[in-house]
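FAQ: What does the model actually see?

It sees only this:
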Amino acid sequence: MIKRLSHSLAQKIVNSGAGRNHSTAAIAFGLELIFTYFFGTAILMVISVLCRQPLAWLVFILGFAPLRTTAGGFHAKSQLSCFAVSSGIFLLSMIVSFLWSWTSTIYLLVCSVTLILVLLLSPVEAVNKKLTQEQRSKNRTRSLIISVINIVITLLFCVMNVASALINLYFAGIAMAAVSLIIAKIKPY
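And it is asked to produce this:
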C-alpha cells in the first residue's frame, strides 16, 4: 500500500514538472521512507494513547532511534513485518518499564552493555544497503558518542537518584537498539 501510494504520488510530481531533476523511482523511494516513518510513528502513538501513556512513544523513540540509526541493527523483510516488530518491541518495553521497578543501577547496566556492544559491533549494515568506508566511520563515531552521552545521562540519574516509568522506557529503548544490533549480527536480514 505505501509502495503504491509513493509511486503514484511520485508519478504525479514528475508529471507536474516539480520533480524534473529527479527520477520517478528516486522520488518514490523518498516518499516511501517518509510515509513509512510517519505510519510507524502513528502506530506507536496509538499504542501509547491506548495504554494511557500519551508521551510514551516519544520517550521510547528518544532512547531507541539515535542508536538504531547510527549503529545499525535488524531490518525486517517487509514493511508489515517492520511495523509488527516495532510495535512488539515497543509494547514489550512498555510492559517492562511500567510494571517492574527499575533503579539507576539498571540504567547504568543497560548503557554499559550497550556501549560494549557498540564498540564491538557498530555499525551493522543492512544487507541491501552497504555503507561506504566514510559512512561506516561516521556512523561508528556517532554511535559511540551517543552511547557515551547515554552513560553521562545515566550517571546524572544515579547522582540524583531518579527513576520513573517514563525514564525506564527511555532506557528500554536503548536496550532494544542494542538487542537489534545482536539480532542483526546473528541473523542478517
